[in-house]
Amino acid sequence: MPEPNLLKKWKTACWLDWCFTSTGQVLFHCAVTLSRSLANMGLSTKLSPRLQTMLTLLR
Predict the structure, then answer these.
(1) Which structural domain, as residue segments, surrounds residue 36?
(2) How far is CA 12 from CA 15, 17, 18, 30, 46, in A?
(3) How many angstroms separate the Cα of 19 from the Cα of each of 16, 25, 30?
(4) CB-based contacts of 31: which residues, under 8 Å, 6+ apart?
(5) Which pLDDT score is estimated for 31?
(6) What total of structural domains would you count in the chain?
(7) In terms of domain of life, where is this protein from (predicted)?
(8) Distance CA 14, CA 34 (A)
(9) d(CA 32, CA 49)
(10) How many angstroms separate the CA atoms of 6 and 14, rounded?
(11) Residuewise pLDDT in 10s, the chain (59 residues)
(12) CA-CA-CA-CA torsion sign (13, 19, 21, 26)
């Protein structure tokens, strides 16, 4: 079963982030990318208030 385009884009974004950031930052970049994708789809994400604030500042 082929992957949805959104998942492909998310994986690509994570890979590009990983190429240009240290490994300590890559998970955060992926979290940002994924949370934005979920928000665009109208899905609510269960994140800590601190992380939500950080993501909001990065938008």
Answers:
(1) 5-58
(2) 5, 9, 10, 10, 23
(3) 5, 11, 12
(4) 51, 55
(5) 72
(6) 1
(7) Eukaryota
(8) 9
(9) 14
(10) 12
(11) 455 666 676 666 666 555 555 555 556 666 777 777 767 665 555 556 666 676 666 55
(12) positive
**Tell me, what's the pLDDT at 52?**
65
**pLDDT for 33:** 74
* Tokens at 58, concatenated: 């990065």
Enter the tokens of residue 38: 């979920």
Amino acid found at 26: V
Report the distance separating Cα 38 and Cα 59, nearest Å. 14
Cβ neighbours of residue 5 under 8 Å, at least 6 residues apart?
A: none
